[in-house]
Specification:
Shape: globular
Distance between the termini: 25 Å
Oligomer: single chain
Number of helices: 8
Number of strands: 17
Strand order of the largest sheet: 3-2-1-6-5-4
CATH class of the largest domain: Alpha Beta
Radius of gyration: 22 Å
CATH architecture of the largest domain: 3-Layer(bba) Sandwich
Helix content: 25-40%
CATH topology of the largest domain: FAD/NAD(P)-binding domain
Order of helices and strands: EHEHHHEEEEEEHEHEHEEEEHEEE
CATH superfamily of the largest domain: FAD/NAD(P)-binding domain
């Protein structure tokens, strides 16, 4: 027998828990389905919040490195990444508890498990405690997005990593190749540089942040190069050339042909700005890690949308 609600929401990120609260305030009975143990979705757990905690420390390190210009002698300092990771996790943990408290306060029933459609108004939740069915006149799909990669460039969470790995890691690499120069790629390239990591950023189009104004791209590239970040635009890494070594990874990066680059420019406002075919001679880059930051994909694979009109 399915448990009945006025509204079922699949996903507990910003697109899920905020409508859940508002619907409850409007006297609707609400069920919130979340596949992860913690509420809050990508932004809270693997995106904005932990990233900004790390970037705050990077900003302080950058300021300390230039403090003598302003008459301040710090007499030496070093990054304690273990302590930084604890700080990051505390920030995330406090907000996780806050979201959990808001669900309880607003009498929103939370179901932990993978939600999928049985019928347009019937949801199956498969979790550790078994299977449950929920029924509602209204359903909101708020499953958000997940990290994207290239065929042949499988994320192993050790040498080939995603942004999810960066914001949960207990350490940081001495060298990194960042594939993609959108918001995610440039943020982490900047952060790692402040941490003292040797950074190379690879972008298939002819400028960083290709979805932004060209003036912004030019200023960012200038700032990156002044900070020692190697910028390789109009370049593409070949996933088939990936070699994992004892110390890290090797991958071939080659110039991108003009025709392929033009095609990518037309796609720059979409999820990814990384594709096409490499051309000409290239060079092999080596680093401890490759950070894949080529965009994100919509999370729909477990929803069984065929059971609906979506």
């Amino acid at each position: 027998m399915a448990e009945k609600f006025d509204l079922v929401i699949i996903g507990s990120g910003n697109g899920g828990y905020i409508p859940a609260i508002r619907a409850s305030q409007l006297r609707m009975s609400v069920a919130l389905v979340e596949k992860e143990e913690k509420l809050g979705g990508t932004c809270l757990n693997w995106g904005c919040i932990p990233t900004k905690a790390l970037l705050h420390t990077a900003e302080l390190l950058n300021a300390f490195n230039h403090s003598e210009e302003f008459g301040i002698n710090t007499n030496g300092f070093e990054l304690d990444y273990e302590q930084l990771a604890d700080y990051r996790d505390r920030v995330v943990g406090r907000l996780q508890q806050g979201v959990q408290g808001l669900m309880k306060k607003n009498k929103i029933q939370v179901f932990t498990g993978v939600g999928s459609f049985v019928e347009p108004k019937k949801i199956k939740v498969e979790g550790e405690d078994g299977e449950q069915e929920l029924e509602a006149e209204n359903v909101i799909i708020a499953t958000g997005s997940g990290v994207r990669t290239l065929p042949g460039l499988d994320i192993d969470h050790e040498k080939v990593v995603s942004s999810d790995d960066v914001v949960t890691a207990k350490d940081y690499p001495n060298s990194v190749i960042v594939l993609g120069s959108g918001a995610v790629g440039t943020e982490f390239a900047s952060m790692y540089s402040d941490f003292g990591t040797e950074v190379t950023i690879v972008e298939v189009l002819d400028r960083l942040l290709p979805a932004e104004d060209p003036e912004i791209s030019a200023e960012l590239e200038k700032a990156f190069e002044e900070r020692g970040i190697r910028v390789m635009t109009s370049s593409m890494a070949d996933p088939e050339s990936l070699e994992k070594t004892e110390d890290g990874v090797k991958i071939k990066v080659s110039p991108v042909g003009e025709e392929e680059q033009k095609e990518e420019e037309e796609e720059a406002d979409k999820e990814s700005t990384y594709g096409g075919e490499a051309g000409g001679d290239g060079e092999t880059l080596e680093a401890e890690q490759i950070l894949v930051a080529i965009g994100r994909k919509t999370v729909i694979e477990n929803l069984n949308l065929d059971a609906t009109s979506v």
